[in-house]
Amino acid sequence: MTDTIESRLEARGITLPEAAAPAANYLPYVITGSQLFISGQLPMENGAIAIKGLLGRDVDVKTGQRAAELCAINILAQAKAALGGDLNRIARVIKLSGYVASEPSFTDQHLVINGASNLIAELLGDAGKHARAAVGMASLPLNAAVEIDAVIEIG
């Protein structure tokens, strides 16, 4: 099998879900020029928010990392939909912005968002190395623990 993003997903046992429809008045992604902007993705699994609550109160760092990984999987699902099913059009992940629902004294947002960063880098190699933000939030939509959006260069 050739070394593609799809083959790396398969090797990890990851099947991309169908891209989620927007929950409000926005587009799930926008392509302008050679950039793909993906709206914030929640830790959805099997059609529902898999990890809810605040980091440091309801959710530990390891579970938060899993939430971030699910967000990254959903980012790739949106990218696949945006690119007509061809993930190999991804030239580079430019930036991930991670939002972590956190109780006020929690300061390990960067460790939580590593769940997404590590998966993206593993699946995309050098093209997956990206700039990033990891920010604590009082709450997120639908009580999700994590939300992540992305800017991707495409070819």
Please provide a brief summary of the model.
The chain has helices spanning 5-11, 61-82, 109-124, and strands spanning 29-32, 35-41, 44-45, 48-49, 90-101, 131-137, 146-154. With 155 residues, it is α+β, with helices and mostly antiparallel strands.
Helix-strand layout with pairing:
Layout: H1 5-11, E1 29-32, E2 35-41, E3 44-45, E4 48-49, H2 61-82, E5 90-101, H3 109-124, E6 131-137, E7 146-154
Parallel strand pairs: 5-6
Antiparallel strand pairs: 1-2, 2-7, 3-4, 5-7
Helix pairs in contact: 2-3
Pfam family, one: YjgF_endoribonc
InterPro entries: Endoribo_LPSP/chorism_mut-like, RutC-like_sf
Domain Endoribonuclease L-PSP/chorismate mutase-like: 6-146
Share of helix among residues? 25-40%
Number of helical stretches of at least 4 residues: 3
Run of helices and strands: HEEEEHEHEE
Low-confidence stretches: none
Number of strands: 7
Strand content: 25-35%
Structural class: alpha+beta
Backbone shape: globular
Rg over alpha carbons: 15 Å
CATH architecture assignment: 2-Layer Sandwich
The name CATH uses for the topology is 60s Ribosomal Protein L30, Chain: A
Terminal Cα separation, in Å?
Answer: 23 Å
Corresponding CATH superfamily: RutC-like
Pfam family, one: YjgF_endoribonc
InterPro entries: Endoribo_LPSP/chorism_mut-like, RutC-like_sf
Domain Endoribonuclease L-PSP/chorismate mutase-like: 6-146
Protein name: Enamine deaminase RidA (YjgF/YER057c/UK114 family)
Structure characterization notes:
The chain has 155 residues and is α+β, with helices and mostly antiparallel strands. It has a single domain (5-14, 35-143), classed as 2-Layer Sandwich (60s Ribosomal Protein L30, Chain: A). 29% of the residues lie in helices and 28% in strands. The protein has 3 helices and 7 strands, in the order αββββαβαββ. The protein has helices at 5-11, 61-82, 109-124; strands at residues 29-32, 35-41, 44-45, 48-49, 90-101, 131-137, 146-154. Strands 1-2-7-5-6 form a 5-stranded mixed beta sheet. A two-stranded antiparallel sheet has the order 3-4. A hairpin with a 2-residue loop joins β3 (44-45) and β4 (48-49). α2 (61-82) crosses α3. The longest helix is centred in the middle third of the chain and has 22 residues, at 61-82. It starts with a helix and ends with a strand. The model has no long low-confidence stretch (mean pLDDT 96).
